[in-house]
Amino acid sequence: MEIKQLYREIVNEHNLNPVHKGVMEAPTLKLRGVNPSCGDDITLQLKISDDGIIEDAMFDGSGCAISQASVDMMADQIIGTNKDEALKLASTFMGMIRGDITDEKEIEQLDEAAALQDVSHMPARVKCAVLGWKTMQEILDHPEKNEN
Fold first, then answer.
1. Strand, helix or coil at 3?
2. Closest Cα partner for 117 from 2, 8, 25?
3. Burial code of 74-84, b = ≥16 C-beta within 10 A, e = fewer?
């Protein structure tokens, strides 16, 4: 199977059967993220333990296949990490999407989210791919914006 076809299937699977989509009961942090240019609209919910570990991540809302798949993949990646690790993953993802990070070892840390690497060649889709990641960065960097 060609690698690009495999990547398309990963994105399609996360869009059609997202593992982390839904409403979380009693999230620690919650923030809405909107991409007005195409209508993507998500609410990211995080449950963080007393020792700072992201125990669960969920999202609710609607949007294009890329935005929905990307936020679902992001949730997979950040569960079990602390704030600094989650923010480092977001930085790596943003760098990959901008085309600044091309080192395969660094990109491999993103696991399935690396499937979105080609989005860097589709400027109209970049905002879709980064919506969940930017929302996560925003709520972790500025917990005072919590919408609970």
1. helix
2. 8
3. bbbbbbebbbe
